[in-house]
UniProtKB/TrEMBL annotation:
Protein name: Cytochrome P450
CDD domains from the UniProt entry: CYP86A
InterPro entries linked to this entry: Cyt_P450, Cyt_P450_E_grp-I, Cyt_P450_sf
Bilayer-spanning residue ranges: none
GO molecular function: heme binding; iron ion binding; monooxygenase activity; oxidoreductase activity, acting on paired donors, with incorporation or reduction of molecular oxygen
Domain of life, per lineage: Eukaryota
Organism of this sequence: Oryza rufipogon
Cofactor field: heme
Keywords for this protein: Heme, Iron, Membrane, Metal-binding, Oxidoreductase, Transmembrane, Transmembrane helix
Family per similarity comment: Belongs to the cytochrome P450 family.
Length: 524
C-alpha cells in the first residue's frame, strides 16, 4: 500500500471515528442514566421509605391482582370504599387517601378549601398537556380565568349563541347522520362514542372559539389532531397511577416509552391550538366576537397562555359532554322504559310530537323527567370519575383519617354513586324517579353528588353543558331507537384517561321510529 493510500485510509478512519463519537457518547450517557436510575430504585426498595406499605390494598395495587375480580380500577376502588366503615381508604404507595364519604367531600371542597388546592404534584402531572389552564392551576391564575369565563358563561348573549350553535349542529349534522345510519338497515353499526365526540368537538369550537373546525388550515386532518388530544389525555392520566413520580420524570428526561408518545401527541395538540388562535385573530380583533376565546384574547397577549386556555376548554367542552351522552344512551339501551317516558314527557311539554327544534329548545327547562334521567345517568357514570387535591398542611378528616402535608386526597364520584349508605339499597339501579318530587326535579347536595364538583370550584359551565346534553337527548330519543351492540351498562369496560371513556367505543344500531298516527315523521 502506498503512502497516499495509507494516508487516505487513516483519514477515513478518523472521519468515521469522529462521526461515531456523538452516538457513542449518547449511548454511554443513556446507559449510565439507566444504571443510576436502577440503583436509585433498588435503594428505595431496600430502604422502604415511610410511605411504603405491604398491606393487602397496596399489594393488590402494585401487583394488579385486583384485575382478577374487577374489570376496572374504579370498580375495585368502589368495592374498597363500600366495605370501609369510614368510606375512606388509604393507598399508601400512592400517598393517596380516597373517599366516598359526603361529609369528607364537604370538608375538602368547602370547609377546608384553602388546605386542599390542586397542588404542585398534580400540576406537574398534567403540565405538559394542560399547562396553566384553569383545571391545572391554583391561586390568582385560577381566579383570573374563572372570573372571566364565569362572567361570559352567565351572559344571556352567550347562552343564546350557544343554543343556536347546538340547534344548528343537531339539525345539520347529528340528526342527518343518524337518519343516514337508520336507512341502511341492520347492517350499519355506528360508534356512538365517536359520533358524540365529533359533535361535541364541533360545538365547543363554535361556542368557545367562534370557529368551525372545517375552516381550520391544518397540515393534517382534524381527526389526526383530535386523536393526539385523546392520546395526550390518556398518557397524562397514566402518570398519576405510577407509585413514584421519579419513574415518569426519568422517562420524560430520556424521551422514551409513554413519555415520548406524550411529547409527540402534545406537539400535535399545540399545532391545533395555535391554528385556533391564529384563525380567531384572522377573523377579527380580540374581544369583538361573542365566543369565549375572543374575551380572553382581549386580556392576554401570551400565546402559550392562550394555548393552555384553548386546550382546557376543549377538554371540558368535548370530552365530558361526549362521555356523559355515551353513558346515557348505553343505559337507555338497557332501559327502554326510560326512553318511552322521555318521549311521553316531550310530547306532553311541547303540546304535540311535531314541534320544530327551536320551539323545543324553549321548552327544555320544563322537561323534569329528562333532567332527572340525565342526573341519574351521571350518578352512575360521572364524566370525571374522581378528582384529587393535595393537602397543603397536616389535617384530620371528619372520619378520623389523619392526612399528612403533601398527601393526595381524592373524592371518588364514581364510587359515591354506588354507595348504599349514600343512595340506598337500589344504588346500582338506573332509576330517574329518585330525583323527582311530585313530578318536579329536586337536586341533591353537591357533596353527595359531586359530579360538577362543589364549593368554590363548582363547574362554571354546568348550565351550558346541561342544555347541550338535554337538547341532544330530546332530539335523538324522540326520533330514534338506539340499540347497543355487545355492550351493557351493567359491566362496562373503561379506557384510561382524564374523563370516562368506554374501551372500544359504543357500537350501536340506529332505527328510525315509526311515524305517529298523524302521519308525520318525528321532527328534527
Amino acid at each position: 500500500m502506498g503512502v497516499v493510500e495509507a494516508e487516505a485510509l487513516h483519514g477515513a478512519v478518523e472521519a468515521l471515528a469522529g462521526s461515531l463519537q456523538p452516538h457513542v457518547a449518547t449511548a454511554f450517557f443513556v446507559f449510565s442514566a439507566c444504571t443510576v436510575a436502577l440503583a436509585a430504585l433498588l435503594a428505595v426498595v431496600r430502604l422502604r421509605p415511610p410511605w411504603w406499605c405491604d398491606c393487602t390494598v397496596c399489594e393488590a395495587y402494585l401487583t394488579a391482582s385486583w384485575a382478577g375480580e374487577f374489570d376496572n380500577l374504579c370498580d375495585w376502588y368502589a368495592h374498597l370504599l363500600r366495605t370501609s366503615p369510614a368510606q375512606t381508604v388509604h393507598v399508601h404507595v400512592l400517598r393517596n387517601v380516597l373517599t366516598a364519604n359526603p361529609v369528607t367531600v364537604d370538608h375538602v371542597l368547602r370547609a377546608r378549601f384553602d388546605n386542599y388546592p390542586k397542588g404542585a404534584p398534580f400540576s406537574a402531572i398534567l403540565a405538559d398537556f394542560l399547562g396553566r389552564g384553569i383545571f391545572n392551576v391554583d391561586g390568582d391564575a385560577w381566579l383570573f380565568q374563572r372570573k372571566l369565563a364565569a362572567a361570559e358563561l352567565a351572559s344571556p348573549a352567550l347562552r343564546a349563541f350557544a343554543a343556536r350553535v347546538v340547534a344548528s349542529e343537531l339539525r345539520c349534522r347529528l340528526i342527518p347522520l343518524l337518519h343516514s345510519a337508520s336507512r341502511e338497515g341492520n347492517g350499519k353499526v355506528l360508534d356512538l362514542q365517536d359520533v358524540f365526540r365529533r359533535f361535541a368537538f364541533d360545538s365547543i369550537c363554535k361556542i368557545s372559539f367562534g370557529l368551525d373546525p372545517g375552516c381550520l388550515e391544518l397540515s393534517m386532518p382534524v381527526s389526526t389532531l383530535v386523536e393526539a388530544f385523546d392520546t395526550a389525555s390518556t398518557l397524562s392520566a397514566r402518570r398519576a397511577t405510577v407509585p413514584m413520580q421519579i419513574i415518569w420524570r426519568l422517562k420524560r428526561f430520556l424521551n422514551v416509552g409513554d413519555e415520548r408518545k406524550l411529547r409527540d401527541a402534545v406537539r400535535l395538540v399545540d399545532a391545533l391550538a395555535a391554528e385556533v388562535i391564529r384563525q380567531r385573530r384572522k377573523l377579527g380583533g380580540a374581544a369583538t366576537g361573542s365566543d369565549l376565546l375572543s374575551r380572553f384574547m382581549g386580556s392576554i397577549d401570551d400565546d402559550k397562555y392562550l394555548r393552555d386556555i384553548v386546550v382546557s376548554f376543549m377538554l371540558a367542552g368535548r370530552d365530558t359532554i361526549a362521555s356523559a351522552l355515551t353513558a346515557f344512551f348505553l343505559l337507555l339501551s338497557d332501559h327502554p322504559e326510560v326512553a318511552t317516558a322521555i318521549r311521553d314527557e316531550v310530547a306532553r311539554v311541547t303540546g304535540d310530537g311535531n314541534r320544530t327544534m327551536a320551539a323545543t329548545f324553549d321548552k327544555l327547562k320544563d322537561m323534569h323527567y329528562v333532567h332527572a334521567a340525565m342526573y341519574e345517568s351521571m350518578r352512575l357514570f360521572p364524566p370525571v370519575q374522581f378528582d384529587s387535591k393535595f393537602a397543603a398542611g397536616d389535617d384530620t378528616l371528619p372520619d378520623g383519617t389523619v392526612v399528612a402535608k403533601g398527601t393526595r386526597v381524592t373524592y371518588h364520584a364514581y364510587a359515591m354513586g354506588r354507595m348504599e349508605s349514600v343512595w340506598g339499597p337500589d344504588c346500582t339501579e338506573f332509576r330517574p324517579e329518585r330525583w323527582l318530587r311530585d313530578g318536579r326535579f329536586v337536586p341533591e347536595s353537591p357533596y353527595r353528588y359531586p359530579v360538577f364538583q362543589a364549593g368554590v370550584r363548582v363547574c362554571i359551565g354546568k348550565e351550558l353543558a346541561l342544555m347541550e346534553m338535554k337538547a341532544v337527548i330530546v332530539a335523538v330519543v324522540r326520533s330514534f331507537d338506539i340499540e347497543a351492540i355487545a355492550r351493557s351498562s351493567r359491566r362496562p369496560k373503561f379506557a384510561p384517561g382524564l374523563t370516562a371513556t368506554f374501551a372500544g367505543g359504543l357500537p350501536v344500531r340506529v332505527r328510525r321510529r315509526r311515524a305517529r298516527a298523524s302521519g308525520h315523521n318525528p321532527p328534527i
